[in-house]
Amino acid sequence: ERMQQRTFSGFAPGSHATRPRTASELENLVLAGDWVRTDLPVALMEGAVTSGRLAANLLLDRQGIRQAPVETVTPRGPLA
User: Fold this and answer.
1) Quick check: 5 pLDDT over 80?
2) Any idea what the Cα angle at residue 9 is, between residues 11 and 28, rounded to 5°?
3) CB atoms within 10 A of CB 38
4) Do residues 21 and 54 lie in contact, with contact meaning Cβ atoms separated by under 8 Å?
5) In the list 25, 38, 48, 59, which could disulfide-bond 34, CB 3.0-4.6 Å?
6) For residues 21 and 38, what is the distance between their CA atoms, to the nearest angstrom?
7) CA-closest candidate to residue 9, choices 51, 54, 43, 55
8) pLDDT in tens, 9-29
9) Nearest alpha carbon to residue 73 among 46, 35, 45, 54
10) What is the full DSSP assignment across the chain?
11) Alpha-carbon gap, residue 66 to 70, rounded angstroms
């Protein structure tokens, strides 16, 4: 039996390409969350944290403030 809960994000296969990125068309609007598209190897909570840091870095950069590092792993293996 398939488990379904309202507390988990659900993304249809192939939906990654249609999700919004952190930067938006509006200068003062950035997006973050597990549903935001990143090009880093992240999922759910890691995606939420990473997109939040990317969003903060966009705002910091626009103010001329040093950005916070975004650490990630190097994709390796058969799925890289």
Assistant:
1) no
2) 90
3) 19
4) no
5) 48
6) 7
7) 43
8) 677 788 888 999 999 999 889
9) 46
10) -----TTS----TTGGGGS-BSB-SSTT-B--STTSB-SSS--THHHHHHHHHHHHHHHHHHTTPPPPP---PPP-STT-
11) 12
Dig out the tokens for 37 from the structure: 């598209």
pLDDT on residue 57? 95
pLDDT digits (tens, 9 = 90+) for 46-77: 889 999 999 999 999 999 999 989 988 877 77
Tokens 């296969």 correspond to 13
Q: Which of 27, 28, 22, 77 is nearest to 55 (CA)?
A: 22
Residues 6+ apart with CB under 8 A from 50: 38, 40, 42, 70, 72
On the question of pLDDT at 31 being above 90, the answer is yes
Residue 56 one-letter amino acid: A
